[in-house]
Design goal:
heterodimer; A: twelve-stranded mixed sheet; B: 60s Ribosomal Protein L30, Chain: A; 2 domains
């Protein structure tokens, strides 16, 4: 019985460690001009250079805004005015072969340069928009998405 | 009287047409593949329920008119036209991350002279970025035990950060880690002193 409890404790502890690892920031805001925001759960924060980004964050800009970010795998991304993008999936753990990214661009202007996820695992990066899905193979692009 | 009504009707009709027309031009989504250092940077597949297209040439572009629109056949755009339309979003792009590889003397956290000479370049890369994120991963060769090598890798990473700070770098965020001898650049057997494996990987974002 005691052994069972110990095993349970060990499992709980490892689950906590795994969860803690997933809570790490996935990137940082580097450039901001005009109004730019980070929507996190129910909170809307003003994006500033140095703001950390987490999985599930939604970046958005006002009609005069722009924001540029770098993610942990070296992906570089920027949004122009009246734009919105959600950092929906991000897995960058080369040692564990966990690699993948999904950006959901709901509207506006964006610019994108692939990082290491795309280089290490071509085809595992997608950009979803209301008008089409973009499959990315190690590339740079700009786009305007009108839903 | 009748002609006035007619004229007004014609005017509203014209306005309606104008709104519809401008609506049409605004409604289209555009995707453009950009070059990287003057070369093709890769490829993008663009797909929806109506069809699929491939962009694989620099400045190649296609349009989609709403969720029900079919991705148009790609055309190569003029670079200036793209820069005019996407200038603001391109200007908001942060500098590309910079990468450096530094090498160490055997069993030590002391850099070899060639790598020492790289330090000012790294400091400049950090100063160019506001805020700068500095990430250093320390590595070792297969001499000694894995535990010792983990600690040596960590010492290489942390002492390098100290060195860069002493040279005037002030990164906003620092991330150091060690891979010990678990991630060899040159695969060797155990207990082999391989200079290329005694290294630190530096990323400045």
């Amino acid at each position: 019985m005691r052994i069972l409890i110990m095993i349970l404790y060990a499992l709980l502890a490892s689950a906590t460690i795994a969860a803690a690892r997933d809570d790490r920031p996935i990137g940082m805001v580097e450039t901001v001009s005009g109004d730019a925001y980070i929507q996190r759960n129910d909170q809307r924060l003003a994006a500033q250079p140095g703001s950390e980004l987490f999985l599930g964050d939604v970046l958005s800009t006002g009609s005069n805004g722009a924001v540029g970010v770098i993610l942990r795998d070296d992906t570089v991304l920027s949004l122009g005015p009246s734009s919105e993008t959600r950092l929906e999936q991000f897995a960058f753990d080369p040692a564990e072969h966990k690699l993948g990214m999904l950006l959901r661009v709901t509207r506006g202007l964006f610019s994108y340069v692939s990082g290491r996820i795309s280089k290490l695992s071509p085809g595992s990066v997608r950009i979803e928009t209301p008008v089409a899905t973009l499959g990315i193979r190690g590339t740079r692009l700009v786009a305007r998405i009108v839903p | 009287m009748k002609s006035a009504v007619c004229r007004r009707l014609l005017l509203s009709l014209c306005l309606l047409m104008l709104v519809l027309l401008s609506g049409c031009t605004v409604q289209k989504s555009v995707i453009v593949l950009l070059p990287e250092d003057g070369k093709v940077s890769g490829a993008i597949t663009v797909e929806n329920a109506q069809g699929s297209q491939l962009l694989n040439q620099s400045w190649q572009s296609l349009e989609i008119a709403g969720p029900e629109g079919r991705p148009t056949r790609p055309v190569v755009l003029d670079e200036k036209a793209v820069r005019d339309e996407f200038g603001k979003v391109m200007a908001a792009m942060p500098l590309q991350p910079a990468h450096f590889l530094l090498f160490y003397k055997q069993g030590s956290a002391e850099l070899i002279p060639d790598s020492q000479r790289l330090l000012p370049t790294i400091v400049t890369a950090i100063k160019e970025r506001h805020p700068a994120q500095l990430s250093v991963v320390g590595h070792t060769d297969t001499m000694g035990t894995p535990e010792f090598n983990y600690q040596l890798g960590l010492l290489r990473a942390t002492s390098l950060v100290d060195l860069l700070v002493s040279l005037g770098a002030a990164p906003a965020r620092v991330d150091t880690s060690s891979r010990g001898n678990n991630d060899l650049l040159v695969k060797t057997a155990d207990q082999i002193p391989e200079p290329r494996n005694r290294r630190a990987e530096v990323t400045v974002r």
